[in-house]
């Protein structure tokens, strides 16, 4: 019954079982299916299962897995544990996996696979198809056939369809596409994902500094990268980081404290500074108590606008919709948006304050402070991520706690300044 199921469906219900029970299920499957199921599991859980199922079955499963998947599986293990598993693999496959493990996890080399189809540029289409028959069964994808020269340098690419319909006697270099999009083996995985997404590739070749073909990154790995990077950015925007649910309770608490506390301390310091600013408004508040009524409104609205602007900017930078080089244009555009929403909200608050407290000047002070605060919030929420990007810092670290706290302070400074200036008319 399991053999008729999709590997992802099998993995979905296996995660609710104990590692010993998962091992029992995998032993019922043939090596190919077991490899696909294992690849769907969390790497930590998969490694626990491999230790249980025994050397013979482990060897059978690993021989059916692609080298990049095995490298991902071994990435978090100690050197001794890696050696134990690699010794169960065929020598040639183990060498490929060891080479992949040398690259950083978040680079093109760390996510590429070495199972691809490549042909020499000086052979005929008929000979190329023969090569394809020999190598394709072990390749992760055959939709693109990469063309190399005698030095293993990437020279071109040809689609499987173009190869099949070509005349048998045609030389490959006459029909191949010479302008090939490729990525360097040390390129960050986020940039690789952006290229694959931009050009709608099913795979993209990976080359070294001498343009020698080392492997390919397939679209399934790119999807994983996009999911991983998006999750990371979302957590950073919240001023925290992802916690591994497989960790012990103690480790999760410690990790949560380490990732959340610094941003909360920033917020705490900002709150104390904001309190000091309000204290400077003490005389005005005693004379006109109604000034205190609008403080939560000012800080809340400014924080919301700032968070919205920073979220849109960080996401735009990640997807390439916003260019960090267009700093003034982007900031100017978002400032205009802040001015528009600030003007509308400011007018509403002005009328509310006037009818509530019967003081037009108080309404103008509150409305003007809200307008200034929202313009500042929109500007800061856009400017900070852009500046971070220009400096080579991940813009996602310009998180909501940092920006919202900064905006609270600037908003209160604007409100305090206006209230103090018009104090004699307000009393």
From TrEMBL:
InterPro entries: CBS_dom, CBS_dom_sf, Mg_transptr_MgtE_intracell_dom, MgtE_N_sf, MgtE_transporter, SLC41_membr_dom, SLC41_membr_dom_sf
Segment forming the signal sequence: none
Keywords in alphabetical order: CBS domain, Cell membrane, Magnesium, Membrane, Metal-binding, Transmembrane, Transmembrane helix, Transport
Record CDD domains: CBS_pair_Mg_transporter
UniProt key word RNA-binding: no
Gene Ontology CC: one annotated term: plasma membrane
Membrane-crossing segments per the record: 261-279, 285-305, 335-356, 362-388, 400-423
PANTHER family: MAGNESIUM TRANSPORTER MGTE
Assembly, per entry: Homodimer.
Primary localisation category: membrane
Pfam families: CBS, MgtE, MgtE_N
Keyword DNA-binding recorded: no
UniProt-annotated location(s): Cell membrane; Membrane
Span of domain CBS: 112-174, 176-232
The protein's name: Magnesium transporter MgtE
Record's bilayer topology term: Multi-pass membrane protein
Family, per entry: Belongs to the SLC41A transporter family.
Gene3D superfamilies from the UniProt entry: CBS-domain, MgtE N-terminal domain-like, SLC41 divalent cation transporters, integral membrane domain
GO terms of molecular function: magnesium ion transmembrane transporter activity; metal ion binding
Function: Acts as a magnesium transporter.
